């Protein structure tokens, strides 16, 4: 058996560690500022995409709110019309039935405002 190592770790001479070309401060600063500029552009693009997504979500919420409000108003008008028809079928005068529906609307609005 051969117990001898095939690769030995020898220290690297200092001449191999030093760069052969000297790096100037201006080229180093240019590289750093270039990287910072790229980083800033990426962050601004990410911010733009986040704002775009937030606006899209806000528009969706506003549309859903408007549709819900429209449905609620439609429901209330249908309820008022059905109540008016029922009062007229019971033999009440039209002016009295409209007055009762108006008072009911006023009470409902007052209840919402107080709440």
TrEMBL record:
UniProt keyword annotation of Transmembrane helix present: yes
Q: What is this protein called?
A: Uncharacterized protein
- Keywords for the protein's UniProt record, in alphabetical order: Membrane, Transmembrane, Transmembrane helix
Q: Give TM regions.
A: 58-79, 91-114
| Organism per entry | Aeromonas salmonicida (strain A449)
């Amino acid at each position: 058996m051969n117990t001898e190592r095939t690769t030995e770790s020898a220290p690297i001479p200092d001449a191999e560690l030093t760069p052969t070309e000297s790096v100037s401060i201006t080229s180093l600063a240019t590289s750093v500022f270039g990287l910072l500029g790229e980083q800033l552009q990426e962050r601004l693009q990410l911010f733009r995409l986040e704002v775009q997504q937030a606006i899209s979500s806000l528009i969706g919420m506003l549309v859903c709110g408007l549709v819900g409000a429209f449905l609620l108003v439609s429901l209330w008008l249908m309820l008022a019309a059905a109540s008016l028809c029922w009062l007229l079928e019971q033999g009440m005068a039209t002016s009295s039935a409209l007055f009762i529906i108006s008072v009911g609307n006023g009470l409902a609005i007052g209840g919402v405002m107080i709440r």
